[in-house]
Amino acid sequence: MTAPTTPAASDSSAGGSPDASVSVVPGSGAVVTTQVDIGAVEGDAAQAVQVGLGTAHAAVWAYGLISAYDTEDLALVRRCRLSNEQIRDSTSDLLSSVGVDPIATEVAYRLPLVVTDRATALQAAVAIEHDATNAWRAVVGSTGNYQLRRFALTALSDSAVRLTGWRVLAGVIPSTVPFPGNEPG
Amino acid sequence: MSGVPTLRSHPIGRRSFLTGVGAAGAGALSGCSVFGGDAPTVTSIVEAPPPVDPIETLTAITRLHLARLDATLAALAADAGSVALLTPLRADRAAHLDALRTEEARGTGSAIAATADPSSSPSTPSLEVAADPTTAIATIRTDAENAQLQFTDGVVATGRYRAALFASISACLATHRSVLSA
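^ inputs. structure came back:
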C-alpha cells in the first residue's frame, strides 16, 4: 500500500504570489508564505504560534532520525522534512514580523517511543504530525486575526495530509480522522 | 391650409431660444443652492445587514455531501474496494454533521432533534450516482474540494471556537482529497 499523495491544487493561483499571506487551498501542498504585515497578533496567539513552531523544529529533527530506520520511504520522509522546514521558516518570519522572537531549535527532542525499526519509525512519524495538527488547530482557536487563522489552517491541513499518509503506511485504520488537531493521541 | 400657422411661419430666433433655456435652467438650479433651500438637511443612517453566519450553509452542504456518499455507497455496494474507501469518509462526514448541528444548536440555545441518522433528513434530495466507480468517486472528490473551500472561507468569518471547528473539518476534507486521489 502506498501513502496518498498530496493532491494538486485546482486553483492555478494556489502557488501564491510573493506577497500572498497563505496558499489559496490549504492542504494543497503549497508552500506557506507570509506577508510582512500580518496585523496585530494577541499575546496568547503568539504563544500558540510558538508551540506550532516548536512542533516544526521537532519534526525536522525527527525526520532525520526516521530516515535512518525507514529506508523504504525515503522520498516521503524527505518531502515531509522539507515541508516542515518551510513551515518552520515561514512561522519564524511571521513571529519576527509581529515583534516576537521565534524560539530556536533544540539539540534533540524526546519522542513518545523509542525508534528501533521501520514500524516504530512509522509510529514516530504519526506522532510528530499528530502533535503538529494539535498545535495549529490551537492557533486557529486562539486568535481573531483572520490572516493568522488562514496561516494556521494551511499548516494544519498540510500536517493532516502528511499524518494521513503515515497512518496509511503504518496500517492505522481508519487512515483519516474527522477532526484533525482535536483527536486523542 | 394657408391660414394654419406653422413653425416655419413664426420661427423662434436662436437668441430667444437660448435666453429661454438659460432662464429655465437658472430657475431650476436656484433650488439646488446650499443657501437657497429652507428644508433642513436630514441625515439618515441605515445599518448594514448583519453578517450571515456561515454555519447554516456549511451544515446544509455537509448534509448534501453525506447524502451523496450514502447514495454512492448504495450504488457501488458490489465493489468492495469502493466501499472500503468510502465508508471511513462517510463516518467522518457524519461526525462533521453531528458537530455542526450541535454547534448550531448551542449558538441558538435550542435542542437538537434526536434522529437516528443525521443524513436521513426529510429535505434530503434523491441523488443520482454514476454507475462507473471512477466517475462516482470523482464526484465525491469534487464534493470534498468544494466543501474544503467553503469551510476555509468560514474559518475567517466566525468566532474562535467555531473557527477551530471549521478548521478541523477543512483539514479533514484535505485528507479526504488526498485519500481519494491516491
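Chain B touches chain A at residues 88-89, 91-92, 95-96, 99, 145, 148-149, 152, 155-156, 160-161, 163-165, 167-179, 181-182 (CB under 8 Å). Residues 1-5 of chain B have pLDDT under 50 and may be disordered.
thumbs up if we can close this ticket
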